[in-house]
Amino acid sequence: MYNFKELKVFLIVSIIWLSGMFFYFRNTPYNWRVYDFDGHIQYSEILATRHKLPAPYEGWETWQPPAYYFLNSFIFPASLKSSDKLLHINCVRGLSVFYGLFAIFIIFWFIKKMTTNSFIQSLVLLFIATTPMFVIMFSTYNNDSLAILLSLTVLALGYKLYFQWSKKTAFFLFLAASLGLYSKLTAGGAILTVIVICFWSLKKNKESQGLEKKIIFILLLALASLLPWTLLHNKPYSGKLFPNNAGGLAATLRIDDRPLIDRFLPTTIFKNFETVWKDPWNHAWPRETTKRYSYWSYIFISSVLSVFHFDTPHIGFAWLFLWVHLIAYLAALKVAFKSNFSKLSFAVVALAHLIDIAYLTRNPFACAMEYRYICWSWIGWAGLYTNCLLNEKQFLKSVLARLFIIAIVAQIYFMIVVRGTES
């Protein structure tokens, strides 16, 4: 257990973040900067009114696993069933903020393994937690919020078990992994990441005590827990084990038919540079300034700004966020192999992108490049940022710390004044 002194950084960060979220909530209508809002609330309403699972293609989102919507159906169900669902919607959005707070704590717990320096801990936590993408993910009516939290939990518990085995932690790992999968299948990316890292550890460490095998077994059991859902629900109703709504996506969201490798080459960032980079937004729909033809451009912007626009604050703030995060990413990658901790952190980030790219090859749509599917890699970036602030030369550490402070202040300002919703 932590005492108050040990939790001081987390508590201060939480107060600052929650204060910013209060203003963000107040200024952001429930259907702004949210993914597929109508489909998500429809799923919850079906469960609350019919008390049974909908067929995979009965609604736009009903192909998704049910845990998130099942939980939501118990939150002011009378409001959910009525024509005015505002009370239910705002409470579910509030629950997303609660998930975000737990996500911050998990990242705090992870970087605390690297350093007890409260200044560095505060910088890293606030830099990530006030990023527009983080704010948006943990303020909307969307199953990503719960899936991200449970994915972060899987990564943290996997790490903890490797160094300190206990049956209780093993049970919670299984529970988090299973619930994550039943919240959204993207949690499988975090599970696969832990499995791959464990296999790699077994291969490198010939004197391993076999804890990796136990962790792998637990996670394979969690993956197997999906069988009732896929075999008894998905297959009979849709003919598919893993149905999705890709068939219903607009043709204009489909990426062109160039060879797949073209999308992933870093050089595509500079293709038609002057035209594509006239503004900082992603533009999922085809237009001159769309970033959809470059995986790295699209997911980079998505990791910072999501796929939405804002009118206030000034567009210069969007450019500022992108530049500071780009510098932070590059500085973090520079120390990726300086310690075992940074290697582990980098492995989480790298595997997240490899899994995302593999998914994109099966679903070649602009929306498949969104960072929300791998937001759990924030914990890896947190480890790399921490390592960077600890191990770089004093001048570089000082510059990076100042950039973090500038970004944090600007991002908090964004939380307070943001307006605009176009995607």
Describe it.
This protein is mostly helical and 423 residues long. It has one domain (4-140, 250-417). The chain has 19 helices and no strands. It has helices spanning 4-27, 37-50, 67-72, 77-81, 86-112, 118-129, 132-137, 144-163, 167-183, 187-204, 211-224, 227-238, 260-264, 273-276, 295-305, 315-334, 340-362, 378-391, 394-417. The protein starts with a helix and ends in a 6-residue tail after the last helix.
What would you say about this model in short?
It contains 19 helices and no strands.
Which features would summarize this protein structure in a list?
423 residues, single chain, globular, mainly alpha
Number of strands: 0
Query: Helicity level, as a percent range?
Result: 55-70%
Low-pLDDT regions = none
Q: Give helix and strand order, one letter per element, not per position.
A: HHHHHHHHHHHHHHHHHHH
| N-end to C-end Cα span | 43 Å
Mean pLDDT: 91
Radius of gyration: 21 Å
How would you characterize the largest beta sheet?
A: none
Strand content: under 5%
By DSSP (H or I, 4+ residues per run), the number of helices equals 19
Which class do the helix and strand fractions yield? mainly alpha
Shape: globular
- The figure for the number of domains is 1
Task: Set out the fold topology.
Blueprint: H1 4-27, H2 37-50, H3 67-72, H4 77-81, H5 86-112, H6 118-129, H7 132-137, H8 144-163, H9 167-183, H10 187-204, H11 211-224, H12 227-238, H13 260-264, H14 273-276, H15 295-305, H16 315-334, H17 340-362, H18 378-391, H19 394-417
Helix pairs in contact: 1-5, 1-6, 1-19, 5-8, 5-18, 6-18, 6-19, 8-9, 8-10, 9-11, 10-11, 10-17, 15-16, 16-18, 16-19, 17-18, 18-19
